[in-house]
Amino acid sequence: MEDEEQGEWASKAWAHLSSVRSLTPLIQCITNFVSMDLTANTLLSAGASPAMLHSATESPDFTPQVHALYINVGTLSDDWLPSMKVAAELASKFNKPWVLDPVAAGASGFRLKACLDLISLRPSVIRGNASEIIALANASFGSSTKGVDSSHDSTDAVEAAKSLANSSGAVVAVSGAVDFITDGNRVVGAQNGVPMLQKITATGCAVTALIAAFVAIDPSHALEATASALAVFGVAGEMGMEMARGPASMRMHLIDSLYGLDQTASWTRLPKFRYI
Ligand SMILES: Nc1ncnc2c1ncn2[C@@H]1O[C@H](COP(=O)(O)OP(=O)(O)O)[C@@H](O)[C@H]1O
Ligand SMILES: Cc1ncsc1CCOP(=O)(O)O
Ligand SMILES: [Mg+2]
Predict the structure, then answer these.
(1) Is pLDDT at 267 greater than 60 in this prediction?
(2) Ligand 2 lined by 198 (C-beta under 6 Å)
(3) The predicted structure's pLDDT at residue 8
(4) How many whole angstroms from 80 Cα to the centroid of ligand 1?
(5) Among 71, 87, 88, 69, residue whose Cα is nearest residue 28
(6) Which keywords has UniProt assigned to this entry (predicted)?
(7) pLDDT at residue 274 above 80?
(8) Is the C-beta atom of 198 inside 6 A of ligand 1?
(9) d(C-alpha 139, C-alpha 167), whole Å
């Protein structure tokens, strides 16, 4: 990517963050028990408005009011899956973008089928780690997964991400040392972040929620909004790491850094992009 284009992507990332702060999008989150706190705090510190409402009984009233829906299958059970499907159907019906985090998609047949069923309800974006995206693209479980963590590098999953984007119609993002974002045609790499993010549970869940907030304010540019969210979260991670002493303090400084990010003060920490 030329310097000029890199600069345009970086400006876009700041513009997206600024719009989230000014428009304060309402994000319905149906997410796992582990991630609820970090996810809500990540959205709040970025300027969005999280609501962890998951009842299928109230979604018909609530989902039409939101700016985007976030579904995460991390602690999936038989009784939560219908709620997820009802909310996803409502989001599609009311033209609200919705974003899927397919946590541990390859861990079991139950989880894989649930994720594939949800993908048939047309998410705007799917964000997973490399093993999750490979499991979904191959529609296979059990062979090379390690629960919620990835046993692959993000570079291993670029072709799987393109294939999943083409088959689903969603923008697909694979996170890792480099985050790759694709619509099946273009592939963009976002290179911010620090390895310590993997030592805090639910940072993947939290960044997927952030993607939902960014797509909420720019739904017709889902690829750009997704890349912006991943880069902004990575910049906050880099800044947080400068103050952190380990995973627990990193969690706190990550949220503080996201809250305090501004284009001028953070200019030395440019969002870094490249075309693949
Ligand atoms: N090695 C790494 N270097 C820098 N950032 C990373 C690294 N691994 C993961 N991240 C970042 O951590 C966050 C969570 O990603 P990841 O650990 O891949 O997801 P998950 O928690 O779902 O497995 C993302 O923002 C990603 O960019
Ligand atoms: C540990 C764990 N178990 C079920 S969901 C979950 C959190 C996973 O979070 P992330 O995918 O962001 O690492
Ligand atoms: Mg995850």
Answers:
(1) no
(2) no
(3) 86
(4) 26
(5) 69
(6) ATP-binding, Kinase, Magnesium, Metal-binding, Nucleotide-binding, Thiamine biosynthesis, Transferase
(7) no
(8) yes
(9) 12
Domains of the chain: residue spans and CATH = 3-275 (3.40.1190.20)
Task: Report yes or no on whether pTM surpasses 0.95.
Answer: yes
Residues 169-180 pLDDT 10s: 999 999 999 999
| Cα 161 to the center of its chain, rounded Å | 14
Put the strands of the sheet holding 68-72 in their side by side order.
Answer: 49-51, 26-30, 68-72, 98-101, 125-129, 171-175, 179-182, 187-190, 273-275
Q: Which two tokens stand for residue 178?
A: 């480099």
Give 35-64 as a DSSP string. THHHHHHHHHHHT-EEE----TTTHHHHGG
* Long-range Cβ pairs for the range 62-66 (8 Å, 24+): 62/28, 63/28, 63/87, 63/90, 63/91, 63/94, 63/96, 64/90, 64/94, 64/96, 65/26, 66/26, 66/27, 66/28, 66/91, 66/96
265: confidence class by pLDDT, cuts 50, 70, 90: low
Does 203 sit in the ligand 1 pocket, CB within 6 Å? yes
| DSSP E strand stretches across the chain | 26-30, 49-51, 68-72, 98-101, 125-129, 171-175, 179-182, 187-190, 273-275
pLDDT at 268: 59
Return the pLDDT at 53: 97
CA 4 to centroid of ligand 3, rounded, Å? 33
Phi, psi of 70 (to 5 degrees): -120, 125
Q: Please, which pLDDT band fits residue 6 given cuts at 50, 70 and 90?
A: confident
Mean pLDDT of the chain: 95
